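As a warm-up, study this chain.
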Amino acid sequence: EDQKQLNNYLLILNTITKEKIRNKILQENLEQLLTNKENQNITTLKLNNYKLAKIPETIEQLKNLKYLDLGSNQITTIPDSITQLKNLQELYLYNNQLTQIPETIEQLKNLKYLDLGSNQITTLPDWLEKMKRKGIKINY
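Now compare it with the structure written out below.
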């Protein structure tokens, strides 16, 4: 019985350690992906369900990005550098840990769809209504 509990504990510990290592590798690889000049013509980036805690500032280098899915992660804030994604049309940030919507999103002039559902946003900024009147579909 004690051996079984010990084995279970070691299995859980091993899983947690692997998860932390995986997340660190993923974050480092993501930084490399975003800064690699060969990837600057990417138009679609799907990083949903990767347990990302933050969006790297270097996301701004993907100038041609039109579709960005960062849903089902653990993101708490959106970096100001996201305003550099001038061609972005669809932004998915559903099921994260966001508590507010930064005004920087208003600067994404080509945005047609914004998904902020299943976050912890308690107040909606006034400019969000303006965006909706322009025909931008917003889920929150």
